[in-house]
Design goal:
Structural class: mainly alpha
Strand content: under 5%
Number of strands: 0
Radius of gyration: 28 Å
Distance between the termini: 66 Å
Length: 298
């Protein structure tokens, strides 16, 4: 009996320990089901507008309701594929957002270097100012900006609008670029300076190659934000031949309830292509992230 008592206790121990694990697995499974259900619901709310836009672009009915068309047609694309409706506005958007993004990314990279590498009493207040500027709505400053543009004769000026778009995106670009630059080790920069490299060589030959994922992220976010910006070019640009696609999309809207939903959907699909292509071209640079471990070995 003395031998059987411990064995019975040992055989009872796993049975009591498996009950909490089974209960934990059931709770974990219920949690995963709830999370997946919420994510599926959110995904459906995003997919339905895209599905409506795709169906309306090839449908033969000019209706706001989501319904399968009786026949498929490319007439909506044929109606918008011309210089005045699509080609010139898209070209204006590419030039406006492309040059503004280039200015923003370059200035953000150069401004992030001293903020990341040097210490100063003004560094923290300046960073707080940048952080505050990222949350400042653009509509809050458009009235004084418009007044200033009138005084310096920059209204209806594409270069002036480009510089203002770049300046409005600069706080977010600097803040994001500085956080990425903090991840670049100082050891690599010090080794390059020991070898005789000056600041320009350190920036372009050492830091910039390691900052490519960060530069890519800033480029994508900046370009997407400018590409969908309607308010700034609508206020600062007056000539119809200078308007980007984000403003010219209003040509499909009518005050007499005669909105061309099919043509509007077709134009929206073409309007989305540059952003999708930019992401596909630059996304492969984001896969590896910051692989700096190998650079520090040895």
């Amino acid at each position: 009996m003395a031998v059987l008592a411990p064995s019975r206790a040992a055989s009872d121990r796993p049975a009591t320990s498996t009950a909490p694990r089974a209960s934990h697995r059931r709770r974990s499974l219920a949690g995963r089901i709830a999370v997946n259900a919420v994510l599926l619901t959110v995904s459906v709310t995003y997919v339905l507008p895209l599905l409506w836009m795709l169906i309306a672009s090839v449908g033969d009915t000019n209706s706001f309701r989501l319904s399968w068309p009786s026949s498929l047609t490319l007439g909506n694309f044929d109606a918008i594929l011309n210089a005045d409706t699509t080609y010139r506005p898209l070209l204006n958007s590419l030039l406006l957002c492309g040059f503004a993004t280039l200015v923003t990314v370059t200035a953000s990279f150069l401004a992030a270097y001293p903020l990341s590498r040097y210490r100063s009493r003004l560094r923290r207040p300046f960073l707080y100012t940048i952080l505050f500027s990222t949350g400042l709505p653009i509509t809050a400053v458009m009235i004084p900006v418009y007044s200033m543009f009138v005084q310096v004769n920059l209204i209806d000026s594409v270069p002036g609008t480009t510089l203002f778009l770049a300046a409005s995106a600069l706080p977010f670009g600097i803040w994001l670029m500085k956080n990425f630059m903090d991840g670049v080790p100082m050891v690599l920069e010090e080794a390059a300076r020991i070898d005789g490299a000056n600041t320009a060589h350190v920036l372009w030959r050492v830091i910039l190659p390691l900052m490519r994922p960060g530069v890519t992220v800033v480029t994508i976010f900046t370009f997407i934000g400018m590409w969908g910006n309607f308010f700034v070019p609508f206020i600062l640009l007056l000539s119809p031949e200078k308007l980007p696609a984000s403003v010219s999309v209003f040509t499909f809207l009518s005050a007499h309830d005669q909105t061309q939903y099919g043509q509007l959907s077709a134009f929206s699909l073409l309007y989305s292509l540059p952003v999708v292509m930019l992401y596909l071209l630059l996304a492969r640079k984001l896969g590896g992230g910051f692989a700096l471990g190998g650079a520090l070995k040895g």
